[in-house]
Design goal:
19 helices
């Protein structure tokens, strides 16, 4: 049933910013039944980047590290279609959602219509009465527009000054923004607002209006406006749809590179543009972390800034090193975990068993966070180094661990459940559904499974579990930008075949087919992805590294064309040489026949000369008759005539 159309209070002229999806978003919000911040119904309407940005429940992950609850008064500047305002209202905060675009403001009002603690205003920050004060003023994806007409054109100092003027005692301005020197941008990703690579890294040369700042410059901007008490966090892959938020305290840990390797295995994810892999992002992230620069190249910043004279209190949990939310999941699988300074992963909320169909989840309330590198990291490091001996050792050590954990299984027969085959006799115990290399950590020689939340109620076929893990590793190798030993044209299927050989794993076609079908069912349950899209997309083994490397495609196509031309020329030359050889052989045969015929001719001519001489000899008169003929002219004439007649 459609929600009643609420009224938006207009406090000013507003701004012209729009992404083109406003009318569609408003129409969807008017027609769906569930408009909550975690709505799966809204998630079904995500068809492109703008609708994903408006409807994804992951938007609210940005604010989960902040202590916001009943009694907290929040001004959400640039509230958009109300995704964050709705979440804040659900937490019990008193929210004023300020949005300059009238259609967006109406969408926010529709989304928050059932929340009496959320008020939606249409206007700009300058239109707000200065007497209105708040515990938090949110500038999420807003400050970068401060120098353009879309943000009032007054510049960042003026916007920050105005935001601070609305703070209550002990209040804070919360800024979420992309990093001008973020790893994504350093590695060639297009600037989110201007759509071109390196434009921010180059200092926005010739650009006016929309821009972002480096960590140091943003800190100075905030401090210059009296917001010098700052707490910094880094949302990954960025502030828009974060799956991990890293606290500034983590970067100061002595093992920060290893922590980041485990918590942020994919530091760069392209959500709003065609994926581009100009370099190995995870490898680059570790290099920056080892140099102490990881915080400076985070893709986005989340900053809680107040005055040192009256600093914010209780906004951020004091013992948190990181907040983990995971990727896109359907209810009831979503969870929020906190990594504390004493290295414990604490689950926020209900830690009881959850179940849907055949799949169960046992997230637990708390567990230790094991230090060290995962087998996934060790394997990828070996691939980066092109050290196949080291890779073989990692894979076989991991395989041996799985073999050690395996148990005998009674063959389930024709009605085998997911991740089992009809002839399964060896399986991994329940809790080993995800036996990926990244879920095993080498803790000083002791191998620990660090994530066993997923359960099926039955074992997992050992062969299927091994292939699944190798396939996940192969896809990471192909898609991450690693310069791996198998070349840019190698597909996931090609790489997984090599990995299986190195691991000593014999993969039969029925194992692959059983895994693919089971994995499709699993992802449908966990992420809500249609099976057809999974099989043609994520589960397809046809992806190649070259598909994600536009910088190398022309070069590689030219190389392949050159190789094809060389191959064709080589084949043509070889065919010509063979033809020439055949002609030469034929010439030699003909020459031999000619010499033979010449010899026969010379022999016959000799015989003919000899015969002629014999004829001449026999035709000459001898003795008395010959003498008589020679002496008588008349007889000589008769003899010559006879010889001529005989010769004729």
């Amino acid at each position: 049933m459609p929600h009643p159309e609420p009224t938006v209070v207009h406090v000013g002229g507003g701004v012209a910013y729009a992404d083109g999806a406003e009318d569609e978003v408003l129409q969807v919000l008017r027609t769906v039944g569930d408009v909550s911040s975690g709505s799966s119904e809204l998630a079904r309407h995500m068809v492109d980047w703008p609708t994903r940005y408006h409807f994804s429940y992951q938007r609210s992950n940005l604010l989960r590290p902040l202590d916001i609850g009943p009694g907290t008064r929040v001004l959400d500047v640039g509230a958009g279609s109300g995704a964050l305002s709705r979440y804040l209202g659900e937490q019990g905060a008193d929210v004023v959602a300020l949005e300059g675009n009238p259609v967006r403001a109406q969408a926010a009002a529709v989304r928050c219509a059932e929340l009496p603690n959320v008020e939606v205003l249409c206007g700009a920050l300058d239109d707000m009465e200065p007497v209105d004060t708040f515990d938090l003023v949110l500038l999420v994806g807003v400050l970068e527009y401060s120098g353009s007409d879309l943000g009032g054109a007054g510049g960042a100092p003026a916007m920050l000054r105005r935001a601070r003027s609305h703070l209550a005692p002990g209040g804070a301005v919360v800024v979420a923004i992309e990093n001008q020197l973020g790893l994504k941008y350093l590695l060639g990703g297009r600037e989110d607002h201007l759509g071109r690579p390196w434009v921010g890294v180059e200092g926005y040369s010739g650009e006016k209006g929309v821009r972002t700042w480096s960590r140091r410059d943003l800190a100075r901007l905030l401090a210059a406006e009296g917001l010098d008490h700052q707490h910094w966090m880094s949302p990954f892959p960025d502030y828009k749809l974060p799956s991990v938020v890293v606290d500034e305290r983590l970067y100061d840990q002595p093992d920060a590179p290893d922590l980041l390797g485990q918590l942020v295995p994919q530091p760069v994810v392209h959500l709003d543009q065609q994926p581009v892999r100009l370099a190995d992002a995870a490898g680059a992230h570790r290099v920056f972390a080892e140099a102490g620069l990881a915080a400076d190249v985070a893709n986005s910043f989340l900053v809680v800034a107040g005055s040192s004279d009256d600093p914010p209190r209780g906004v951020v949990r004091k013992d948190a090193l990181a907040w983990l939310f995971g990727g896109h999941r359907m209810p009831p699988w979503r969870r929020t975990r906190v990594l504390t300074q004493d290295r414990e992963l604490v689950l926020l909320g209900d830690g009881g068993t959850r179940q849907r169909a055949w799949l169960m989840q046992e997230p637990g309330c708390a567990r230790p966070f094991y230090r060290g590198q995962t087998f996934g990291e060790l394997a990828v490091a070996a691939v980066r180094a092109h050290d196949l001996d080291a890779l073989r050792h990692v894979l076989r050590t991991w395989c041996a661990e799985l073999d050690e954990r395996a148990v005998d299984v009674e063959p389930p027969g024709a009605d085998a459940p997911p991740f089992l085959l009809a002839d399964t006799t060896r399986g991994l115990p329940d809790g080993h559904l995800d036996a990926s290399l990244s879920n095993f950590v080498d803790c000083d020689g002791r191998i620990v499974l660090v994530d066993d939340e997923w359960r099926t109620g039955h074992p997992v076929d050992l062969r299927v579990a091994k292939f699944r893990a190798l396939w996940v590793l192969a896809r990471e190798v192909v898609s991450s930008g690693i310069e791996h030993p198998w070349g840019l044209w190698a597909s996931v299927d090609d790489v997984v075949a090599v990995l299986a050989d190195l691991a000593g794993v014999d993969v039969a076609p029925d194992v692959v087919e059983a895994w693919r079908e089971s994995e499709a069912q699993l992802q449908e349950l966990v992420a809500g992805e249609p099976r057809e899209r999974l099989v043609d997309g994520w589960l397809s083994g046809s992806l190649r590294s070259i598909d994600l490397r536009p910088d190398r495609q022309a070069e590689e196509e030219l190389r392949r064309l050159r190789d094809d031309v060389v191959q064709q020329l080589t084949a043509t030359v070889a065919a010509r040489d063979e033809q020439i050889g055949a002609l030469q052989r034929e010439r030699d045969v003909l020459a031999a026949e000619r010499d033979e015929f010449r010899g026969q001719r010379d022999h016959l001519e000799g015989l003919l000369v000899a015969k002629q001489a014999e004829v001449d000899r026999l035709s000459r008169p001898r003795g008395f008759v010959g003498g008589l003929i020679r002496r008588q002219p008349a007889l000589r004439r008769i003899a010559r005539s006879v010889r001529r007649d005989g010769a004729g």
